[in-house]
Amino acid sequence: MFDDLATARRIETAEVGLTRAVVEAAIASGDAPRAFLRQLGGALAAYIRPSSPMNKLLGAGLRPSITATELEQVETLMRACQERTRIELSTLAPRAVECWLLGRGYRLLGFENVLARSLHRGSKPLETNVQIERVTRETLALWTQTTIEASAQSDQTGDVVDQFSRETIATAVEDFVRAPGFDRYLARWKGVAVGAGSMRIQDRITLLSGSATLAPYRLRGVQTALIAARIADARQRGAELAVVTTAPDSRSEANLIKRGFSVAYAREILERD
């Protein structure tokens, strides 16, 4: 763990930027007529469609806290969409913020870990049979299908807060595909597409996301190769920190730690009925 609040704020700001990009693209598409964004100081409230993993309030607690009036407005908007209000709260936020939310009727659903790794130091050369390629317009459909199929095949590890249906995953991936600013990667094993990943860079923070491997090809180094390729590209583009969010005690978390990542802090997942 670390207590560098300035870096934590940069990470949370990058997460806010990612969410904003995805929701704005969904709004522009016309496919999500009830989607909305509300900026609350350094925090952002977002909604796309029912059951979307993007429906949440994030970035709260590390900058001046949102007011009760602002939060009530978000809760009202979520209720109008028949959605519970969910908040991702950094464990580095003041304890008073958590107590305030619990007093308003929020309950703790679980945690997610934020892992980080400096890009100022190099990596050992990776020997692998996995081929990594940047996704082009011609391979975007293959990347999308691979991501959906692999994400829907849970490895049943870690303390996971949500288990999404294949339909929800497919819709969420399509929402991400529309958003600008992402670099996407496809992993192949003997020419066959077996895994996928993406990343987004903001303020020299690289957010690694969308990582998934088809079940029959797990434990063959696919994710290790995807991590190495994205780190190398991010370093070339001037990024200084790579960040990934995982479920605690998951196989993904263990793999990232082997690749030099460590837990920076956690986020509490709070929800109000």
Describe, in plain words, how this protein is organized in 3D:
The chain is of the alpha+beta class. It has two domains: 5-113, no CATH class; 130-265, Gcn5-related N-acetyltransferase (GNAT) (Aminopeptidase), CATH 3.40.630.30. It has helices at 5-29, 68-80, 95-103, 140-151, 166-178, 222-236, 251-258; strands at 36-40, 43-47, 56-60, 85-90, 107-118, 130-134, 182-189, 192-202, 205-213, 241-246, 262-272. Strand 9, helix 6 and strand 10 (241-246) form a beta-alpha-beta unit. The model has no long low-confidence stretch (mean pLDDT 93).
Give a summary of the structure in a few sentences.
By secondary structure, the protein is of the alpha+beta class. The chain has two domains: 5-113, no CATH class; 130-265, Gcn5-related N-acetyltransferase (GNAT) (Aminopeptidase), CATH 3.40.630.30.
